[in-house]
Amino acid sequence: MEFQVKFAINEKIFLRNPESSEVGKLMVKKAIDLVYELGFEHFTFKKLAIEINSTEATIYRYFENKHRLLLYILNWYWCYMEFLVTFKLQNVTDKKEQLKIIVHLLTHELAESANRFDYNKKYLNQIVISESSKAYLVKDVAAINKDEVFKPYKDLCVKIAEVISAYNPDYKFPRSLSTTLIETSHHQQFFSVNLPKLTDICSENMLDFAFQFIQDLLFQVLG
Question: What share of the chain in percent tops pLDDT 90?
Answer without folding.
Answer: 83
